[in-house]
Amino acid sequence: MASITSLLSAEDKKVTAEALQGSLVDLLDLSLLGKQAHWNIIGRSFRSLHLQLDEIVSLARDSADSVAERAVAVGVNPDGRARTLAEHTHLHQFEPGYLDDGKVIAAMTDILESIVRRMRERIEVTEKPDPVSQDLLIGICRELEKQHWMIQAQR
Amino acid sequence: MASITSLLSAEDKKVTAEALQGSLVDLLDLSLLGKQAHWNIIGRSFRSLHLQLDEIVSLARDSADSVAERAVAVGVNPDGRARTLAEHTHLHQFEPGYLDDGKVIAAMTDILESIVRRMRERIEVTEKPDPVSQDLLIGICRELEKQHWMIQAQR
Amino acid sequence: MASITSLLSAEDKKVTAEALQGSLVDLLDLSLLGKQAHWNIIGRSFRSLHLQLDEIVSLARDSADSVAERAVAVGVNPDGRARTLAEHTHLHQFEPGYLDDGKVIAAMTDILESIVRRMRERIEVTEKPDPVSQDLLIGICRELEKQHWMIQAQR
Amino acid sequence: MASITSLLSAEDKKVTAEALQGSLVDLLDLSLLGKQAHWNIIGRSFRSLHLQLDEIVSLARDSADSVAERAVAVGVNPDGRARTLAEHTHLHQFEPGYLDDGKVIAAMTDILESIVRRMRERIEVTEKPDPVSQDLLIGICRELEKQHWMIQAQR
Amino acid sequence: MASITSLLSAEDKKVTAEALQGSLVDLLDLSLLGKQAHWNIIGRSFRSLHLQLDEIVSLARDSADSVAERAVAVGVNPDGRARTLAEHTHLHQFEPGYLDDGKVIAAMTDILESIVRRMRERIEVTEKPDPVSQDLLIGICRELEKQHWMIQAQR
Amino acid sequence: MASITSLLSAEDKKVTAEALQGSLVDLLDLSLLGKQAHWNIIGRSFRSLHLQLDEIVSLARDSADSVAERAVAVGVNPDGRARTLAEHTHLHQFEPGYLDDGKVIAAMTDILESIVRRMRERIEVTEKPDPVSQDLLIGICRELEKQHWMIQAQR
Amino acid sequence: MASITSLLSAEDKKVTAEALQGSLVDLLDLSLLGKQAHWNIIGRSFRSLHLQLDEIVSLARDSADSVAERAVAVGVNPDGRARTLAEHTHLHQFEPGYLDDGKVIAAMTDILESIVRRMRERIEVTEKPDPVSQDLLIGICRELEKQHWMIQAQR
Amino acid sequence: MASITSLLSAEDKKVTAEALQGSLVDLLDLSLLGKQAHWNIIGRSFRSLHLQLDEIVSLARDSADSVAERAVAVGVNPDGRARTLAEHTHLHQFEPGYLDDGKVIAAMTDILESIVRRMRERIEVTEKPDPVSQDLLIGICRELEKQHWMIQAQR
Amino acid sequence: MASITSLLSAEDKKVTAEALQGSLVDLLDLSLLGKQAHWNIIGRSFRSLHLQLDEIVSLARDSADSVAERAVAVGVNPDGRARTLAEHTHLHQFEPGYLDDGKVIAAMTDILESIVRRMRERIEVTEKPDPVSQDLLIGICRELEKQHWMIQAQR
Amino acid sequence: MASITSLLSAEDKKVTAEALQGSLVDLLDLSLLGKQAHWNIIGRSFRSLHLQLDEIVSLARDSADSVAERAVAVGVNPDGRARTLAEHTHLHQFEPGYLDDGKVIAAMTDILESIVRRMRERIEVTEKPDPVSQDLLIGICRELEKQHWMIQAQR
Amino acid sequence: MASITSLLSAEDKKVTAEALQGSLVDLLDLSLLGKQAHWNIIGRSFRSLHLQLDEIVSLARDSADSVAERAVAVGVNPDGRARTLAEHTHLHQFEPGYLDDGKVIAAMTDILESIVRRMRERIEVTEKPDPVSQDLLIGICRELEKQHWMIQAQR
Amino acid sequence: MASITSLLSAEDKKVTAEALQGSLVDLLDLSLLGKQAHWNIIGRSFRSLHLQLDEIVSLARDSADSVAERAVAVGVNPDGRARTLAEHTHLHQFEPGYLDDGKVIAAMTDILESIVRRMRERIEVTEKPDPVSQDLLIGICRELEKQHWMIQAQR
């Protein structure tokens, strides 16, 4: 079957592929967990968090799309299927049922912090292999850190 | 913990809950598979399908949100976490890697047909227990059948 | 040649096909007659009716499109050709030439009433065979009844 | 004086008239009470509720308009005058003066629940007499139940 | 309970409170009566008046909101509940049922004239106590006088 | 009955009337046939043609409206009723049922070419009698020739 | 002082200058008279005509601007000062005071017809000297004839 | 003939009428002179002034419309015909032909200053007779003074 | 150097200048302090206040711009440089570092109240010298009082 | 290979082809030279010209696109490649490096005048062979003459 | 009190904090000085610079906001109070009173150049400690250098 | 003549100048070739590629503008004249005449790949001399690689 040619060397491509696929799993699972909380949250801060969680979901979806399209543009196939997410995610998973607003703040602060930590490592390792992918990850990281601050500030 | 009061009887609520949670799994997995094909598709019809798949993803995301918010509004907790999707989905799963455009058309036709078939059963069983949920499912079903036609017409 | 698969039984499909094709003829001819009056009307109420008739035309065109796309989505070929309309329409036809505003009000009131009467029958017969098509017809019927009131109120 | 012809039988029209006029009173009084709270609310949740109450008011006004225009379209005169509202409303009335945010949440939850309960009865009784009016009430009911959840979730 | 501090003296506040609460009753009842006519009007001028009445309703609702928010900003609680309107309104009340277009023009001309007359008195008495509230009332009065002209010009 | 005065001589008016009425029949039937294909088309180019056919329909509808309003502005009554279209159209008529995409391209190329050929004759004959109508026909002709190229380029 | 070079011969420039300056006077005075009627009209058709007159004023202002900018572009100075208008206009002038709606319809029909008659002469004489200016006048003429029809149709 | 009732006393109405009619003449002539300069200006500052003059024309037209509609709303007939403007204007009139940019700045500064001076007198005399009209004139005056500064600053 | 001519007497200009320059300092420092809190706020109400503070900043910036442009329009030079603000501000200054949400509510209530108090004095003293400036200050004052209420209501 | 059928005779097509291809070269090179000046201009009029040059570039690009699409619609292949432009352009070429604003005004005046001169010849020769192409060229010519005036007026 | 956790080491955080706080002071003072010139500028280039200065102010405000929010996101408290700006700014301060346009060009060129020089140093020092902050500063620097060119080109 | 000061050292400026001027030639010629194919393409994929090529042209034009403005901002004169493009381009040039869709896909894939290859070299060499220009080139490169994938995927 046809495939997309890559301008990266095999080694650079391998490093970039790992960084992008890892980011994709983080971001897609963030979008699912953000919606899970958006629907099941309960408490006095319901409305503020209900709205903010939707902003996080939008950020996660748009960033996931950019990361996946970057992957295919450098000749790597992104994988965002449910089973892949379930097996490879590093994110804290909510329990089913209602979610207390205070616990959502605490959990989402942790989730965002863990993603940011991995994004910063990916920024470091992609600098030489593919500065174009690195620049994309830097932009996404800034937005995630901003959301991390705005969730954490509500503790 | 606080919870949302339901105006439905226990039995009606159980039937409605199953219909809505089942729809949620169908729709969220459709959104993930739609994106998977949107990224990895290859072939002469690439651009037309790349764009149409994004319309299907938008439809799936918006419908999933409506269904989940309907669930919580009748006192039922929706569950859209990755593991839940992976374990409960009935949808045909794409192989990883590039996806030939002809195969995407065939697979997506099957996927949409299987969802529509289940949606029609849910429309039937919710008529008495909760006509408000039924009306939501009817509206979603019409859009899914329209996409089913527009994908299938390209075979 | 390829065709679109239908999820309806043969009998349900037949009933639904008749309801949708009948609606299509009613709505397309309404759009032509609405324009005919929009252009040829004359009298003190010219401007109000000229504008309102264009709203009716928009409603008729959008509804016709929805009905025809619903037909093909359930495996039925809609037919909106001029000869089909000329032969199958039940609507009162204007004479050629200028149309007095008072007569336009009276004639359009009758035209809308006759369509609504048929739409209500179609709503009844499609309930069991295809509640999705029925829901579409209900929505269109509500808008037609609203226009019927707003034309009639000017008598 | 002229009047609008009705396509409903006398009996069907009577049932439909009661359902629509009852809905109109509920919705218009909801719009007045929503504004009353929008202006006089006080407390830490002021801003969130001030904004959400305006969404409820918009929903109530738009729904009231649709219900009243549906009434006249089936030959029934809607009545939304102040005295009619004052005499026929079933809604809990706020005391004059400042309204504590916690009490607004509790009262508005009750108000919405009582309207929804009546709307569900109206949906049931209009199914046979006028499925077009029923469909309108179903759509409004879904939005009211959604607001009921989002207010209640803040308790 | 908490309350909003006022920068006005007790006497100035009393005068301003009366002017604003009086305006609120006038404007909210105007919005209800405007809708009542918008729905029940009948006659050759139906469409023009149906549309103009909705402009009056929008003006009345927006002005009522500004007036009530001005009241609470100077430490006064606005009261816009149905019973308050029913008991305190000075406006001519329409009979239930269809409303002839000529009579709507005549009645609405009177209603607007009576409100304008009271608004002009309120403008006079608030000049010294609260020029900020006066300026708001002047702006509303100009719009009401414009509508008064445009309704009256159709006699 | 009242009528619209014409600034054209009897002879000029006759020539102009024929050109405009002929254009109206061409354009309205183009709009009906464009929709017929928009709904019933099938094949690998489905989506591209489905969208392009809707652009042609929009062009046909807007142009028909301009032509008909031009006719009445010069004192001529346009006739766009279904029977008139059925009897006077020169356009190739599709068979009922599914339409293969390749055949739609071929047929629509012919349809557009035949209309353009007649439009060019109308442009020639209206130059002296009514340069204002001629200018309108020139503008429409350019758009039709553009669509003719863009359909034909897909053969 | 500097001036704008003209690409037209002296004779062609003279003919074009007269056509454009004559159009400018017609159009600017039309804009003033349209507003005069917009403000002072009275009668049952007040609202329809009040709105339509503003469309005529917009058309007149935009057309006047295009004509004047065309003049300076071919090296001719347009003159749109009040005294020039007062001395050179050929348009029927309204009496001061209220204007009955029927009389506005009759007068505006005459005004538009007289402008159209002169525009058609200007279209004829500019064909050879400056087809670019002619094309501008043709476009304006079409819009004026459309307004002429829509005013006259209300007689 | 019918007329619009006035809420002002005869004396107050007379003062207000003079202030509004005087403003109307100033503003309409400003709109004509602004366009005259917009078209005929020449010099290095052409583009900046060409654009700014159009802002002044928009301000003049909108303000004239508000002033005239205010007049009729208080029972006074505004007069904005060409001859009235030519005979009653106090504004400096440009010579025909090209206008040097420096001279446009100087002349427009004088024109705006003279209008502002009269507006300030009108603000003073209308305070008691009609504070609603006064408030309108204050708002217009502020915009005119702003344009006066921005033209003058370019000297 | 050139300067802007003033239509005010020396004495009136002096009073107006003080009122406008004082307002400018208040409003610009409000915009800086609003941003300071927007960035450094922390606590459960973070998101609501973070958003509301940005509305206050927008109001302060737009109002400052209007006030400064009014100053120069009456021949007075506004001064909004950092040192001028630092030396002349009367507003409570936040400590550096994180700001607790409760303290932000209390401090911002005081800040707005002190500005409103000074604005009301400026409204009083400018009435005679320059009613145009007074009208501007009245409009700004109303918005500030509204924000004062909406912040204070959260205590 | 496939090609687009032409409705023009061989001779008419040849004349039209030359006119359109000549226009294309003029317009594309105008777009390149407009950008060259947009970037390298220097002097006190920098900002005004920088902006105006971008308007000219937009006009040139849009017109070039219309001309090229017109060519292919009549069966002629447009050629807009860099070498074609370099070899066939008649336009004055700027020197590399900074461009003094006065010289840009002079040079752009000449460039536009030379294009207009050729456009007028093309308008003349295409009248009989293809009035549809002629009409397009007339419209473009008017815009170019307008820009010619607005650049020249700054000398 | 609560605080925002930082993912940076103490040393990296210190370097980043200095770069961001330094940028904040530069950008906020640029916004104040840009407005100071926007209001007080005088001369033939008034309008062009008045508008361009507002673009610079918008850039400065948006950039300041991004920089400050970046600071708090990495655990550093931004300080943008008036006294901080007055004491720490490095920017050239305008004299009070009117500002000649030529001097504004010269001074703003210097101001922008000095900020750019410091931004480039900050870009260098933040590369290792925080590439995310560095990327933000790079983006701001590009816009500042663009404004520096566009101001300087007018000398 | 005046010139723009550069903050770069002579050596850094030379490297940056070459990277930016090289990019400009690549991007402008891409815009010309994209349009050449947009007009002359023929084949079953006509419509998809016709639209996609216009996206590539928009990207090329916007990027060229950013690159050229970056050049002048660092004191380098960009050169985008037709002869410069013709002599310095490295891009594959299409033959004149119709272009088969398959060949357009192949050729455009090559064109984009060759540009991307040079952009990556420019990103490498500008890292030290001017990280601001480098960041701009990285952003453009990402968009070009995305288009490269989306064209290539259609082979």
What can be said about this structure in brief?
Twelve copies of one chain form a homododecamer. Chain A is mainly alpha-helical. Chain A has helices at 10-40, 46-73, 82-88, 101-126, 131-152, and strands spanning 41-42, 99-100.
H/E topology pattern of chain A: HEHHEHH
Number of strands of chain A: 2
CATH topology of chain A: Ferritin
Gyration radius of chain A, in Å: 16 Å
**Poorly predicted sequence stretches spanning 5 or more consecutive residues of chain A:** none
Shape call of chain A: elongated
CA distance, first residue to last residue of chain A:
52 Å
Structural category of chain A: mainly alpha
Biggest sheet: strand arrangement of chain A: 1-2
Number of helices of chain A: 5
What share of the residues of chain A does DSSP label as strand, in percent? under 5%
| Largest sheet composition of chain A | 2 strands, parallel
CATH superfamily of chain A: Ferritin, core subunit, four-helix bundle
Task: Give the total of domains of chain A.
Answer: 1
Task: Look at the structure and give the mean pLDDT of chain A.
Answer: 97
CATH architecture designation of chain A: Up-down Bundle
Question: Assembly state here?
Answer: homododecamer
Please give the most extensive interface between any two protein chains, plus how many residues each contributes. Answer: A-B, 38 and 38 residues
InterPro entries (chains A, B, C, D, E, F, G, H, I, J, K, L): DPS_DNA-bd, DPS_DNA-bd_CS, Ferritin-like, Ferritin-like_SF, Ferritin_DPS_dom
Protein name (chains A, B, C, D, E, F, G, H, I, J, K, L): DNA starvation/stationary phase protection protein
Pfam family, one (chains A, B, C, D, E, F, G, H, I, J, K, L): Ferritin
Family (chains A, B, C, D, E, F, G, H, I, J, K, L): Belongs to the Dps family.
